[in-house]
Amino acid sequence: MPLSPEVVTRARERVGSFVRRKYHFDALVGIGGTAAVYAATHRNGTRVALKVLHPELALIADIQARFLREGYVANRIAHEGVVRVVDDDDDETFHTVFLVLELLEGETIAERVAHTAASMDESVQWGDRLLDILAAAHDVGVVHRDIKPENLFLTRSGTLKLLDFGIARLLDGSSATRSGLLLGTPAFMSPEQASGHARDVDARSDLWSTGAVLFRLIADRPVHLARSPAEQMLFAATQPAPKLETVVPGISARLGNVVDRALAFERADRWQDARTMRTALREAVGTNR
Question: Which residues are in the Protein kinase domain (predicted)?
Fold first, then answer.
């Protein structure tokens, strides 16, 4: 959904100001549907990122709770591929809340492939690293629920970071979202997510989305071709994914099978955990990364 001019203008106006008399907004890094992200400097000289919830959304208790909960969820995962959330606070001037995160320099995979198609080796490397992060997340009961190229960040040093745990679900049953609320991104939603079956979403849903990312990178198209996000969601909820080899003729059968199994319509037919899928991916391409 396009951002309103008011949201963009307000986000830009913050640059050069302070929040809580300790964080200086240095530059606007990006604006999304729920928040604006800034490069900032603490008064002690530490460089950080500030993720500020759009004020109109801060008025909705459920959204504010989900936004703040990102810090508690992400920090449960002991992996370098998860962005550290070091603080949260409220912005009295704009009547909203914000998170303080480690500052990343680089680009998302979505930005990278927008101007340069991913090579097969890059696609496999990124899939391998993502599965390693997911294994650590799933070990502590965290399901991300929004795996997509826009949430995969490549730092300048080459580290892959998984962003935005704002809609993650804790498998201990706690959740900051209303029951039945549809969350995720249509092109990368598992069938159970697209169908609105929130209770069925588990680690295997993340693996379906990982398969969708690999499919997108290797085939240079989404799993389901559709005319709109709504139609993509409908297809995800009702149609099996096409076999990768039917879209990419000549693809290695073993690699195709890894992706196809991740994209199985029924959860029981998918890879059952991230480590098993990661091992299969490595074996398919003959690597010991």
Answer: 23-285
